[in-house]
Amino acid sequence: VRFLILGSSAGLGRALAEQLASEGHDLIVVATDTPDLQALASHLSLVHSVDVRLVTTDLADPKRATADVLRVVDDLRLDGVLAVAGYARDDDRGTLAGDALDRVVNVNLTSVQEIVAALLPRLVAQGAGSIVGFGSIAAVRGRGMNVAYASAKRGLRSYFESLALVVRDTGVEAQFYELGYVATQQTFGQRLFPPPADPARLARRISSALGSGSRIVYLPRYWGLLALILRWMPSRLFARISS
Ligand SMILES: NC(=O)c1ccc[n+]([C@@H]2O[C@H](COP(=O)([O-])OP(=O)(O)OC[C@H]3O[C@@H](n4cnc5c(N)ncnc54)[C@H](OP(=O)(O)O)[C@@H]3O)[C@@H](O)[C@H]2O)c1
Question: Which of 63, 78, 93, 189 has the fewest CB atoms within 10 Å, i.e. is most exposed?
């Protein structure tokens, strides 16, 4: 069994790489060209005796990233794609434009669609496989920050809703996690309530749900209730707590 993980050098993607390798799965790990990725790959293959291949690429360039991924995947059997990479910026307050806007939309949305589109036919042909995407509670309701990021994540959810229908009856599953706060570099140093969840714990949950069929799930689960409250909160109150 071999999984492709987009964004595996840090945070939840790294925790998923560690979890899946510890279960004996081979991996293709993807991130920008950082020493972290090389070190992670060497560590995982040594400790867990699994085959770990690297793709160093920039998901801000969807076409080139897809070509880089396909070159390494080659004719290897692939059992799943976990599109974990995400990119958010503090200055994303409605005025992001040009390259900065492209980067946010491409890393969070376009590259996922481009890479999944390239790999979907082979998953369907083998009659099995998991495609897993990651949204954010930042996209539950539009607000004055994370403007481009949230719109990309909302688009990603729509894409995964559609994907679940596209792969119905093919043996392939499309799973989408709406994530609450996770203890990674994205939340480091922030005082948040509820407190950020442990990525290793989430990785175990996500891994154990592979093969259980298409689904859209809030993680941690209580965020489902919080999202409902945020969505139906009176606008004035929401504006006060969300900017
Ligand atoms: N942390 C949270 O509280 C939270 C909340 C809701 C949703 N999420 C979502 O959950 C997912 C995981 O988040 P996280 O906090 O674990 O993220 P993270 O710690 O910031 O890690 C992001 C990963 O994506 C990779 N990445 C980012 N930009 C890339 C690019 N242009 N090309 C290739 N790889 C790139 C990074 O690798 P390099 O930078 O090394 O290339 C890294 O491995 C993301 O989709 C995020 O949007 C997170």
Answer: 189
Whether 16 and 206 have beta carbons less than 8 Å apart is answered as yes
- 56 Cβ inside 6 Å of ligand 1: no
Tell me how far apart the alpha carbons of residues 126 and 4 are, in angstroms, rounded to a whole number: 16
Ligand 1 atom nearest residue 10's Cα: 43
Q: Which two tokens stand for residue 135?
A: 């949204």
Tokens of 195: 């407190």
Do 148 and 101 meet the contact criterion of CB atoms below 8 Å apart? yes
**Residues 141-195: tens digit of each pLDDT:** 999 999 999 999 999 999 999 999 999 999 999 999 999 999 999 999 888 989 9
Pairing label, strands 52-56, 80-83: unpaired
Cα 128 from Cα 167, distance rounded (Å): 10
Encoded tokens for 204? 């175990």
Ligand 1 pocket member 59 (CB < 6 A): yes
Q: Could you tell me the pLDDT band of residue 242, with boundaries at 50, 70 and 90?
A: confident
Give the DSSP H or E segment for 54. strand 52-56
Cβ of 84 less than 6 Å from ligand 1: yes
Identify the residue whose C-alpha is closest to ligand 1 atom 8.
136
Q: How far is CA 164 from CA 30, 51, 132, 203, in A?
A: 24, 29, 11, 21
Residue 9 Cα to ligand 1 midpoint, Å, equals 9
Please determine, for residue 243, whether its predicted confidence score (pLDDT) is greater than 90: no
Q: 133: Cβ below 6 Å to ligand 1?
A: no
